[in-house]
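Why do we bother with a discrete structure alphabet at all? Because it lets us treat a fold like text: something you can write down, compare, and reason about line by line. To make this less abstract, here is a complete entry for Glutamate [NMDA] receptor subunit 1. Read it the way you would read a sentence in a foreign language you are learning: slowly, and without expecting to understand everything at once.
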Amino acid sequence: MMLRSAIVLTTLIVFNKVTSFSNNSDDAEKYNVGGVLNDFESEKHFRLTISHLNFDQNYKTSRNMTYYGKTIRMDKNPIKTVFNVCDKLIDKRVYAVVVSHEQTSGDLSPAAVSYTSGFFQIPVIGISSRDAAFSDKNIHVSFLRTVPPYYHQADVWLEMLNHFGYTKVIIIHSSDTDGRAILGRFQTTSQNYYDDIDVRATVELIVEFEPKLESFMEHLDDMKTAQSRVYLLYASTEDAQIIFRDAGNYNMTESGHVWFVTEQALSANNTPDGVLGLQLEHANSDNRHIRDSVYVLASAIKEMMTNETITEPPKNCDDSGVNWESGKRLFHYLKTRNITGETGQVAFDDNGDRIYAGYDVINIRAKQKKLPVGKFYYDSGKATMRLNINDSQVIWPGKQKKKPKGIMIPTHLKVLTIQEKPFVYVRHLTDDEVQCMEDEVSCPLFNTSNGIENDFCCRGYCIDLLKALSQRINFTYNLALSPDGQFGHYILKNSSSSSLPPSPPRKEWTGLIGELVNERADMIVAPLTINPERAEYIEFSKPFKYQGITILEKKPSRSSTLVSFLQPFSNTLWILVMVSVHVVALVLYLLDRFSPFGRFKLSHADSHEEKPLNLSSAVWFAWGVLLNSGIGEGTPRSFSARVLGMVWAGFAMIIVASYTANLAAFLVLERPKTKLSGINDARLRNTMENLTCATVKGSSVDMYFRRQVELSNMYRTMEANNYDTAEQAIEDVKKGKLMAFIWDSSRLEYEASKDCELVTAGELFGRSGYGIGLQKGSPWTDAVTLAILEFHESGFMEALDKAWIFHGNAQQCEQFEKTPNTLGLKNMAGVFILVAAGVAIGVGLIIIEVIYKRHQVKKQKRLDIARHAAGKWRGTIEKRKTIRASLAMQRQYNIGLNSHTGTISYAVDKRRYHRLGGHRGPENAWTGDMDALRSRRCLEETTKLKHSPKIHAPLPLLNKNRQPINLLPPRYSPGYTSDVSHLVV
């Protein structure tokens, strides 16, 4: 830019300025506006517009504010145009320049005006220049225009594609600046500004050609092999004639093809019938653009004067160092204008290009007749542009009234699938096998890393569906497995470079979705979940199976313990029952004990009196009634006790019946409950809980958790545990390594029906469906959707469910759930242990009783011996007392008679018992009394020994010579007797 400006200034220095402008008025506010116009009519209208502006107080800040128009004629020679601008406009101190151009001069002269004025920061308003070069603010720093550039027609193309429903196109453009600009505008606007999926169009093929064509044949060969039949053409009028000529020779302008062209191509003299083109409104109305330009300038100056001070513009081109700062600010105010003018809504973008420009949609008819069939206009109510086309008036190529499909429908498709039981079973071909079995389809795996092809055979739910679709809608196919074994997820990549403004990151897909987006496949027949992220880039048919997301976990084992039989009652109830037994037994005992009618005579033969109910019998009675055992004895006798017994019997009946019913529920009909209640379970939401859950990386379930804000904490926890495949996760659930696997309900229901140890937890969430995936704009979408709907109505899909998903195992598991459990040792082990404990306690008690009884017997023997010894001692004492008393009486009697010692009796005794005559102590009142006493004692002991059970015969006393001694005293003879009554006188 500086080099061009320097050249212009060097040229200007050679010539002398012939005019100068000075503003000497102190009171009036004068604003000069320059005009570089192409004819006298435009100059006249420019001055007239300035005159009208001076009488319009809405665009003036004071009465002294006056606008003056300074015009020059556009010269075909750009150098002369530069000198005229310096000598006749800049010297007049113009605040802005309005410029147009002749159709034959091109855009060189307006560019010269833009270079010269831009060097001094004087704004330039173009009213006819539409080249893309003027949008470059590095060159045209102060240029803006009331007409849109040519490449803005890409916006109308996108609206037309959306209106007609075309999503795959071929763009044909020249390799000049405008051609590349319209391609860039189309791609950028399609990706960044249109979020609606129906608007975004994909470019299948880009055909770029050099201007000044001689032949277009070489490009048509590539276009015929493409799938799209919608062509967007940007070319000059001359190049468009060559393209239409060659395309007609290839029959590419006939029925089934669609052409959207720009204004230049629409002017070709051989434009085919049915072509739709664009025509800018007021494109040739220079007078209207002049008026809008002047009023836009006046609006900007008014607002700028309100906010800041405007300095005077440069007065000549000699001073290369002049930099008009107010000119920069004025250009900024010009870009912010938005007014309603004679050419419509006038507004500008950041590049100074006109936006909200209206277009007519032109349909070419026979003999090059141009018929408007629609309009692209500004909707003031919504403040946006809208497209309105009357479809009934449109005639398509080949003079067809019906809209073409815009795409070539292939009959041989490349279909992809993925291993996912029960929808797709994959089997590797052995070395001995040449081809797959009858119910299988060959599905090779093309390894993208090493290029090796592996032979596999596929069968299952989706394979049967693919066979039915191919027969129903008549297409052939080649089936292959997903190259990376994944459904596909997107990766955000930043595509902006340093030379371009930053743009939002774009999504790159992997797996099956990536193959379809990159057009390496035509269809995906797999359990592919329909979700918004995928639907943004591919087409989906109607769901062939509705499903949701659920949780798979291992079925908990039964919580049978040794005390399972105690589960029907709570611990508190058991304690109360135990207490009640003994309380009732105690009350029964007391009632029977203190009742006056507790004892009575029985009516049967033995008339002995019944004993009252003791405490032990009362406890036995209470337990017997509770346990429903027969009571043979120990029943209550009083009326009050029997009333209590009847109440206790009713209580026992209710308790036993309740226990029996609950025991059946707990032990026989008990079913293990799932550990998790569903996705809202607090343990899943709580990241601190030690509970492992996972899903498959990059799957639709993973995307679901990623976009659910309320599940973000849970997703961060499970993200580290996610698996590569569902098979690995299910296997870990079976082994107990993974507690919960979150996946599609169809697959998990299949696994649960196949293995009754697995169970799905909670209700379905994230409901969606499985659909057939196709390319955007695929012609097979509607046909596949209609076929799937027919399959649902005919029951074919239900038959596939029964054949592949349930396999009849679901009914077996369901029957197992409804059938009562068979009680085993594990359930009733506690009862047997209780009986064994009772036996052990009984044996232990009997041992204790035996030991205790032996101890009591020994103790009783010792007491008997002691009691016998004490009695014998007392008897001996009594006998001694008796003998002593009798001897004392006899001694007293003898003393009283004064008898002599030598009586007849004494003589006889002495002769028979010679020891009687020995020495006696004074205590012996009667001779031989001690011997007699000793003999009597021996007799008593001998008698006792004779009657003792352990001594069978008496043992005689022995003397020193082992001879028996007769200790018995002789019976008293008449001369010796204890009875001494005969001696009494």
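What the structure line is telling us, in plain words: The first helix runs from residue 2 to 14. DSSP finds 28 helices and 31 strands in the chain.
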